[in-house]
Specification:
Elements lengths: L1 H27 L11 H14 L15 H12 L5 H26 L1 H18 L6 H19 L6 H15 L7 H16 L3 H29 L2 H16 L1 H4 L4 H8 L1 H22 L4 H18 L14 H19 L2 H7 L2 H18 L2 H14 L10 H9 L6 E4 L4 H6 L19 H15 L3 E4 L13 H8 L13 H11 E7 L2 E6 L13
Parallel strand pairs: 1-2
Antiparallel strand pairs: 2-4, 3-4
Helix pairs in contact: 1-4, 1-5, 1-17, 2-3, 3-4, 4-5, 4-6, 5-15, 6-7, 7-9, 8-9, 8-14, 12-13, 13-14, 13-15, 14-15, 21-23
Length: 542
């Protein structure tokens, strides 16, 4: 009997693993490195990963306002796949499958197999609507957040085990060191527990929970702090990834509680989760009053608002910000399906769908059908053939501008991208002359003067061989390097739309004196250093 139960359990989770893998495969097929270019944020993370692998220091040799973990993940992915994006692509897809499997296990503990499978499928479908080009901090946070959610669900209603709080603390640190805004799930769990204990005067339990959560958070934190302290850039890490973000968020001027934006972009799964959330209000009051797993009910009520609040702090509504909603949406979807099935399905049908082998096989059959009918299987066929038999044709898509840079420069030459097209650094395998590759897109802060001055000094001293003007392709109102276009921008009637970071005029003067236009590719103007213009081009190897 035990062997039969073990075999059926292994089969169940094997089928769930395959289902999660196929669903993640749908999302990752169109963004595979052979057929797509990295997105804006992803490009910067990849370039930073390259810098780490060549001995560079974060926040000194490459600057960004994200937590350090995203850069180490990219460095690991590049190392795995010999400096190509395939390693990063594999790490992220694997982490999402693991997050989905972990979430399924936790949801099943509370709402049963059909509800957990339904919720897992829907949140993965919703993820596909907002995932963009992938390699975002929010995507990697899901494994940490679903781990915390699963620990919370399988420990409900007690949730007073020190190991549980310790793991919550570990997961909190994992998400925090990716991006501080990604910790809404853990905060919701802890706040729900502490609120119930406060109402019941369980002050000792509050202290107990806080202590073990803090210990869990401190273990990875000490490792991170120790690493940066030894490298001599601890203060730079704190300033960039924490303090600067208070100014970047600019809550007083730009905060907007963007719940509806997120729902609209996630689509059908989010609308269903909203129905589940409204149903929670209907069911929660009596359950909380009777003490029936009150911590879980409080979590269902508070989880989404807390996540929405944190994703709204910057005042922006980038689709990938809403990836962090997925764990709490999965709970609402599982709850909704469980409540709906109570009165919509007969006992016989409920008994049928509660058999994991029955439901998972039909779902798996449907996914395989869509893989063939939608052409996804042929995408992976082409990837397999290219990676194993036709590598000489190239295994990573390279845009025309990056190809030009590779051809017209040597490996030791430096280039500068004016605008947020960091993919040219990564794909061309050429370094920037400055850590501040995001310039001039800075928020006013105590650091803006020094960073801007350092940018100008670095560029004017290094004299990069090529400068690419990507301002016309960047949706952040960056002034053009072309003086005529720049004047038109300033005379447009709303010059305040454009970014006026310190030392821009000095940079423009330096640029106009030392560079000339040599090529325009796909709307990107490429300028060559005048002093080197008389030397033969084609100095590099494509």
């Amino acid at each position: 009997m035990k062997k039969s139960f073990l075999a059926s359990t292994v089969l169940e989770y094997l089928l769930i693993l395959i289902i999660c893998g196929l669903l993640v495969g749908f999302t990752f097929a169109p963004i595979n490195p052979m057929d797509s270019y990295p997105s804006r944020d992803s490009s910067l993370f990849l370039y930073a990963g390259q810098q780490l692998l060549t001995g560079g220091d974060l926040y000194l040799d490459i600057w960004d306002n994200k937590g350090p973990l995203i850069f180490f993940i990219n460095a690991l992915g590049l190392w795995i796949a010999s400096d190509t994006r395939w390693g990063v692509w594999l790490l992220e897809s694997t982490s999402l499958v693991a997050a989905a499997l972990c979430g399924y296990y936790g949801l099943k503990h509370i709402w049963g197999h059909p509800s957990s499978l339904f919720a897992t499928i829907l949140w993965l479908i919703g993820l596909g609507h907002i995932h963009g080009g992938g390699n975002f901090t929010e995507g990697y946070s899901l494994i940490f957040n679903f781990l915390a959610l699963t620990i919370f669900l399988i420990r409900s209603p007690v949730f007073e085990n020190k190991l549980s709080f310790f793991i919550i603390g570990l997961s909190l640190a994992g998400s925090f060191f990716l991006r501080a805004n990604n910790i809404g799930l853990q905060l919701s769990i802890l706040f729900s527990f502490f609120l119930i204990q406060l109402l019941n005067r369980g002050y000792g339990k509050i202290f107990f929970g806080m202590l073990w959560t803090l210990l869990g958070f401190l273990v990875p934190s000490i490792i991170v702090i120790g690493y940066f302290w030894v490298r001599g850039n601890l203060m730079q890490m704190i300033e960039a990834s924490l303090i600067y973000n208070f100014y970047y968020s600019d809550i007083n001027n730009s905060f907007r509680f963007s719940v509806w934006d997120g729902i609209a972009q996630i689509g059908f799964p989010a609308y269903l989760a909203l129905v589940g959330y409204l149903l929670v209000f209907v069911r929660a009051w009596n359950s909380i009053k009777l003490g029936e797993n009150a911590t879980l009910w409080i979590f269902l009520l508070l989880g989404w608002p807390i996540d929405a609040l944190l994703s709204s702090l910057s005042g922006r509504n980038y689709p990938h910000y809403y990836i962090s909603w997925m764990p709490v949406l999965s709970t609402l979807l599982a709850f909704l399906f469980a409540e709906f099935s109570r009165f919509a399905f007969s006992d016989k049908f409920l008994g049928l769908i509660h058999r994991p082998s029955f439901l998972t096989r039909w779902v798996l059959f449907g996914l395989v059908f869509f893989y063939f009918n939608g052409g996804t299987i042929f995408v992976y066929r082409d990837i397999f053939v290219r990676l194993f038999f036709e590598r000489e044709k190239g295994i990573e898509a390279i845009d025309p501008v990056s190809r030009y840079i590779r051809r017209e420069t040597k490996e030791e030459d430096q280039i500068l991208i004016w605008g947020l097209y960091h993919r040219f650094y990564y794909l061309s395998r050429r370094d920037a002359p400055t850590p501040y590759v995001v310039y001039p897109v800075y928020k006013p802060s105590p650091y803006i003067e020094n960073m801007s001055m350092q940018f100008f000094e670095d560029v004017s001293q290094a004299q990069p061989r090529l400068i690419v003007d990507a301002s016309s392709k960047t949706d952040d109102y960056i002034l053009s390097l072309d003086p005529e276009i720049r004047q038109q921008q300033l005379n447009s009637g709303n010059p305040t739309l454009y970014i006026h970071t310190p030392y821009q005029e000095e940079f423009f003067t330096y640029f106009e004196t030392n560079y000339r236009l040599v090529e325009t590719i796909d709307g990107f103007n490429i300028y060559l250093l005048i002093e080197k213009a008389i030397t033969p081009l084609h100095g590099g190897v494509e």
